[in-house]
Amino acid sequence: MAAATKTESRNQIPPYMKAVSGSLGGVVEACCLQPIDVIKTRLQLDRVGAYKGIAHCGSTVVRTEGVRALWKGLTPFATHLTLKYTLRMGSNAMFQTAFKDSETGKVSNRGRLLSGFGAGVLEALAIVTPFEVVKIRLQQQKGLSPELFKYKGPIHCARTIVREESILGLWSGAAPTVMRNGTNQAVMFTAKNAFDILLWNKHEGDGKVLQPWQSMISGFLAGTAGPFCTGPFDVVKTRLMAQSRDSEGGIRYKGMVHAIRTIYAEEGLVALWRGLLPRLMRIPPGQAIMWAVADQVTASSSAADQRLASSFSDNGGVVSSPFEVVVALVGTVEKELVEAINTSTLEKKDSLCFIEVIVHKDDTSKDLLEWGSRVSAANGRPPNPQ
């Protein structure tokens, strides 16, 4: 039991690598799925029934505005996805570390839900809201003549919003965005872990590497629940972000609750789930793409860590160059090893470089203590545990 727990702890991916994997997944997802996001936004903003459905909306946009119009808002969308996934994956990993059981090292479902919700709230306030305000303002502009558009690009759009509506205009719709993203991530991270276990017998930290297609299936299924739960929040978010003040300084929707009531009274209950189908066409495939990339990146990092740590152990702590030591010290080796390193010195001996490691003396680091003793002995010094 203790050995299994130690192995699982050793295979945990550090938060910074989770963040890197999320950012790479975000870039790929944005480029593949931007057209669906444009169609979703147009449908949600359609109050007069101009579009008859997803296919009609897409064909209308292409016919009247050109194919490139399906990638309107790609720059803020890709940037915001990259930053969002970086923060989401990194902060979720940090929250899960805080919620881990001190004895077993495992995260409960409650802890996983709270970690996901916390990550969603952070990304909503720090990144998602201002980027989506700019993206939606750009996407709602119609026509073939860019010179007639109010907003000429992402930066011009942001500057115009700040000038006309103050800096707070970039955080229009923050409340429903927080609710949408918090709920989405709470459900998504919990469901992804559950599907990994159910379908592939993959437990977090067990060292097992999923194939890309397996990660895509788990990610796709995990991404389906959120849109159903958060449909009203997404519609209200889009309406609040898209609206600008009229000539008298007034706005149509006064806030999240007022928007829900107004939409329900004027357009019916179904309108609160408008754009659900394109969301289902975008979010689950997006999660499939993101997790396929993220899981492979973290797996590659973990494999490299294990190879480097194994080379240290096999050589009794002897390394062949200062570069290997630097790599170790900046955290490329497994997290538990890095945390055990307090100080180190390099010495030349028999044309090889050695590293002296002072490790923490505790029950969970006995193997590291033994490894440190061998290293110290190789340097001709007694071990110096703290």
Automatic annotation (TrEMBL):
Q: Where in the cell is it found?
A: Mitochondrion membrane
Annotated membrane topology is: Multi-pass membrane protein
Which Pfam families would you find in this protein's record?
Mito_carr (PF00153)
Can you name a GO cellular component term? Answer: mitochondrial membrane
**Gene Ontology terms, MF aspect:** succinate:fumarate antiporter activity
Keyword annotations = Membrane, Mitochondrion, Repeat, Transmembrane, Transmembrane helix, Transport
Q: What is its main location?
A: mitochondrion
Asked if the keyword Translocase belongs to this entry, the reply reads no
Positions of Solcar repeats: 13-98, 110-198, 210-300
Task: Report the sequence similarity comment from the record.
Answer: Belongs to the mitochondrial carrier (TC 2.A.29) family.
Q: Give the protein name, as stated in the record.
A: Mitochondrial succinate-fumarate transporter 1
Source organism = Arabidopsis arenosa (Sand rock-cress)
